[in-house]
Specification:
Length: 444
């Protein structure tokens, strides 16, 4: 029975147990091939970045990755699991610092205009252009992403109570979700808002704690151009460092995820194809010569890259056919070791490269009482934060959150009204022009 016939028969949802062995073997083989290709590409990209940049801060993690790529089976899985958790912890700190600096970048983007001559454009024309841009697409997801991005840049004209109501409504959406989903959303809101009180030093981004402290202590209502230029210069420098750190850790995590997937699938595969062998050979070419001249190593990958080009798209299209049936398979055979392995693989190859695979497996339904409790706690945290910070910082935080939560408008008329109101009721010409320029830049 070929692949199409197998999937066709299983879609009938009859005698699934008789098809399970072949389904699992074929699915595992596809995941293995896809991950071997992605591992080769991610490892190549990681090596390329490390060859171009000074990354002494990454040596420990990269060395651990290289050591994992020599191991097989349970030994590999155990080491990969530990390293994966370590990288996730590192990225939590980096994300917290990055999001907090994003709040101050939002402020600096507006403070900059205090030291410029500005001319306010025709607000009705501006509002119309924004509306046309938002609704130019028919896809609801795209429209909502545009709305959130623009709301985050518009002059904020909203009471704290209205903001708290939006938080409450946003969390209420999770009433049919699970606790992991709620906690993930809460984590996103807290990091986006910079609610974290203590920040660690980030290896590779020296002086980040001092910068966050100085940004917090600055009086933005009386900031001088000299102070503005000093702080933005430091912020830009550290932002570049953080961008490199994120890039390296993402590539490392992708390598971990894909080699992890390969090791989970390997026991269920009876034979390997040429693509598997090519991808693994490319990975070994880099791993075995990691300390050698970068140009020689990269040149040695050219033939492998050519052979693998376009393969992952074909494989992923086939993977999607198997994934479409997986919920039914999992519901019927949840205790089967092969199915459990494939479930973890589905998480590891997803776009959420830092997904917590252990936590996702054990999540509980979110009760209304749980949601109400965490909502009250979150609002209390925001209320306390607002008491301790200036109006400009609070507005920046609220804008960042409004760009994160689900769209809170009921219809297009409300969106149009919000845009016009925000523009027309901004009494600060400098802030208004800054917001309009940033929105125009986004729309270009």
């Amino acid at each position: 029975m070929n692949e199409k016939q197998l999937l066709h028969e299983m879609k009938k949802k009859k005698n699934l147990d008789s098809y399970l062995p072949e389904y699992c073997e074929r699915f595992a083989s596809l995941y293995y091939t896809y991950s071997s290709i992605q591992l080769a590409f991610s490892y190549y990209t990681l090596f390329e970045v490390l060859a171009e940049e000074k990354t002494l801060w990454a040596e420990d993690v990269v060395s651990s990755l290289n050591a994992c790529l020599i191991l097989e089976g349970e030994d590999a899985i155990a080491k990969l699991r530990d390293l994966r958790f370590k990288v996730m912890q590192l990225m939590e700190d980096v994300t917290a610092c990055t999001d907090t600096l994003g709040i101050y970048e939002h402020i600096f983007n507006r403070v900059e205009y205090r030291f410029r001559e500005v001319t306010v454009p025709d607000l009705s024309v501006t509002a119309t252009r924004i509306q046309q841009f938002i609704f130019a697409d028919k896809d609801t997801v795209t429209i909502n992403e545009k709305i959130k991005a623009i709301i985050a840049e518009l002059p904020l004209r909203m009471t704290k109570q209205r903001f708290f109501d939006i938080l409450t409504d946003s969390l209420s959406i999770y009433k049919d979700s699970d606790e992991a989903g709620v906690e993930g959303f809460l984590y996103q809101l807290r990091t986006t808002a910079g609610l974290r009180e203590e920040f660690p030093e980030i290896a590779g981004a020296s002086g980040i704690k001092e910068l966050i402290r100085d940004c917090r202590d600055t009086d933005y209502s009386a900031i001088t151009q000299e102070t503005y230029e000093q702080l933005t210069s430091r912020l830009n420098e550290i932002s570049d460092q953080l961008l490199l750190i994120v890039n390296v850790y993402m590539q490392v995590q992708e390598c971990i995820n894909h080699y992890y997937t390969m090791q989970l699938c390997k026991p269920y595969i009876t034979e390997h194809n040429h693509t598997d062998e090519t991808a693994v050979a490319m990975m070994e070419q880099i791993r075995d010569h990691f300390e050698e001249e970068s140009s020689v190593v990269l040149d040695g990958c050219d033939s492998y890259l050519s052979a693998l080009e376009g393969k992952q798209e074909d494989i992923m299209e086939r993977v999607m056919g198997f994934e479409a049936l997986f919920p039914d398979v999992q519901a019927s055979f949840a205790e089967d070791a092969r199915v459990q392995a494939l479930n973890i693989c589905s998480l590891l190859v997803s776009s959420s490269i830092f997904v917590d695979i252990d936590r996702t497996e054990q999540s509980k339904p979110a009760t209304p009482e749980m949601i109400a409790k965490v909502t009250d706690t979150l609002i209390e945290e925001f209320a306390e934060f607002f008491k301790q910070h200036s109006k400009m910082v609070n507005k920046a935080v609220m804008s960042a959150i409004l760009g994160t939560v689900p769209v809170f408008f009921n219809n297009s008329e409300e969106i149009v009204e919000y845009i016009s109101y925000s523009l027309e009721h901004c009494n600060d010409e400098k802030e208004l022009c800054a917001s309009i320029d940033l929105i125009n830049e986004y729309m270009e």
